[in-house]
Amino acid sequence: MLRLSNVSYTVDGKDILSSIDLTIEAGESVVITGHNGSGKSTLIKIIMGIITPTSGNIYLNGEDITDLPIYERAKRGLTIAFQQPVKFKGLTVKNLIDTATSHSNNVSDVCDYLSKVGLCAKNYIDRELDDTLSGGELKRIEIAMAMAKGGEVYLFDEPEAGIDLWSFEELTSVFDALGDKTRVIVSHQEKVIATADRIVVLSQGKVDRVGETSEIMKSLYVSRTCARLGGDK
Amino acid sequence: MIKDIDKGLLSLITDYHSQDAEAFNIRKDGESIDRRSSKKITISPKAKKNGIDIRIKKGTKGQVHIPVILTKSGVEESVYNDFYIQAGADVVIVAGCGIHNDGDKTSRHDGIHTFYVGKGAKVKYIEKHLGKGTGAGKVLNPVTRVYLREGASMEMETTQLGGVTYSKRDTMAKLDAGATLVIKEKILTEGEEIAKTKFDVVLRGEGASVEVISRSVAKDESYQAFDSLVVGESECFGHVECDAILIGNAVVDSSPRIKARNVDATLVHEAAIGKIAGEQLTKLMTLGLNESEAEDLIIKGFLS
Predict the structure, then answer these.
(1) Where residue B11 falls among pLDDT bands split at 50, 70, 90?
(2) Of B288, B297, B301, the CB nearest to A71
(3) Which of A229, B63, B71, B138 suits B255 as a labelling partner, its CA being 20 to 30 A distant?
(4) Which architecture characterizes domain A2-88+153-228 according to CATH?
(5) Residue of A nearest to B296 (CA)
(6) Tens of pLDDT along B30-44?
(7) Least CA distance to A147: which residue of chain B?
(8) What is the ipTM of this complex?
(9) Helices A168-177 and A135-149, interaxial angle, to 10°?
C-alpha cells in the first residue's frame, strides 16, 4: 500500500502541491489526471524521491520512505517510467536492461522485454540510447526498462506521450501484463484513464476529485465539454 | 626474460598472447626482448636509432603486435617505428605502452610511429597506454604520422585509461584520393594527470574522408587539451566530434578546427564539454544504483 500524508511542495513561495492525502491500495490502478501545471508529474516524482516535498510523508507498506534516496525506494519496489526518456551516449539497450534486472540477460530475455513494447530485440539490443533513436522508440524502451526492473508499485508519467505508431491497445496491454501490481499513471488520455480502478483529479496542486473510474470519467467529460464551450465545470 | 609483472602489464596493453601473433616485437626497458618475423611481415631493427621497421608485403592478411613496457624507474626513451604496408594488405597492428614505476624518477616512452599505407591497403591500429605503480612520473608522448595512398583505409583506436601522469599525443595524417581514416580516442585522467592531444589531418585527394571521435573523462584536478585541425583540399568529407565529461575540479580545453580549401569540401565539427547530466544519474538511481555506481556506469559506457 502506498500512502501520501499531507504532502506539500512549495517553490519560491508558490504552492505546487498542497496537503495531498492519498491512499493507493496494493494491486490498485490509479490514474492521476488534471490540467497542465496541476502538479501531476511533480507528485509522481515526489513518490519516487526525485523531488523532496516541503512537508508531509510518504509511506510504502507502512514504512515511512520520505527520507529515503531514490535507489532505496527502487529497491523497495518502486519503479518509474519517465515522460521524457533519458539518453545515454555509450550505453546500449542491453546495458540498461541488465542494470534494470541487476543481472546480465541473454538475447532471449531482452527480446521478451522489448517485444512487450512492440520492438524487435535484434534491431535494438546493441543500440545506444542516443539521438539515433526516435522519441517513440526511446519511450518504448523506457517502458521496457520499467518492465524489466519489476517491482510492487509502477509509476508511469504520461506513458502515451510520443508513442508514435504503437497503438494505445498495445500500451494498455502492458498495464494488463502487470497483473496485480500497483499502478499509478499520470495521463490525459481517455483510453489510458479508462484502464484505472480509480481516478484522482488534481487542480492547482490540490486533489479536486477522487473516485471510481466510471463516476469520474463522466464528470471529466462534462468538464471538458464545458471548457470547450468556455464555461465552468 | 618475461616476468610475471611484465605479463600483467602486457596483458593490459595488448594481451600476453602477442607471441602468438604472426609477427611481433616486445620491447622492455629500452631494448627488444623478443621478436619474430614471418614470410610476409618482417620486423628489423633500425641501424642508427632506437626502433624497428615493419614491412608488410602486398596483399598480406595478419596481425602484428609491438607492445612496449617500462618496469624500471628512470628509463627514458624515444623509439622510432616505421610501418611500410604494401598495396592490398589487410592487417591489425596492436601497439601501446605500459609503464610500471614505483620509483622517484620519471619513466618516459616516446613512440614515434610512421605509417606508409599503400593503395587499397587496410589497417586497424590499436594503441593502449597506461601507467601503474606509485611513482610520480609516468610519461608517454606518442607521435603518429599516417600517409594513406589512394583508396587506403586506416582505423586508429587509442586508449589511455588512467595512471599516466603526463601525455602529449601528436597525430598527423595526409590522405590521397578515396582514402579513409577513422580515429577513435578514449582518455581518462585522474588526480593531477595531464593529457594533451593534437590531430592534424589533411584531406588531399578527391573523396578522401576522416572521422575523429574523441571521448574523454577528466576527474579530480586533472587537465586535458584537445586540439584538432582538419583541412579539406579537395571534394572530401571530414567530421570531428569531441565529447568530454568533467568531474570534480578537472579542466578540459577543446579546440576543434576545420579549414576548407575547396568549395566541395564538407567539414563538420562538434564539441561538447560538461558534467554528467543529472537526469542520467537520476534514471540509473531509479533502476537501483546509488549515485557512485550510476556515475561509474555512465563513464564506463561513455568510454566504451
Answers:
(1) confident
(2) B288
(3) B138
(4) 3-Layer(aba) Sandwich (3.40)
(5) A91
(6) 999 999 999 999 999
(7) B287
(8) 0.93
(9) 10
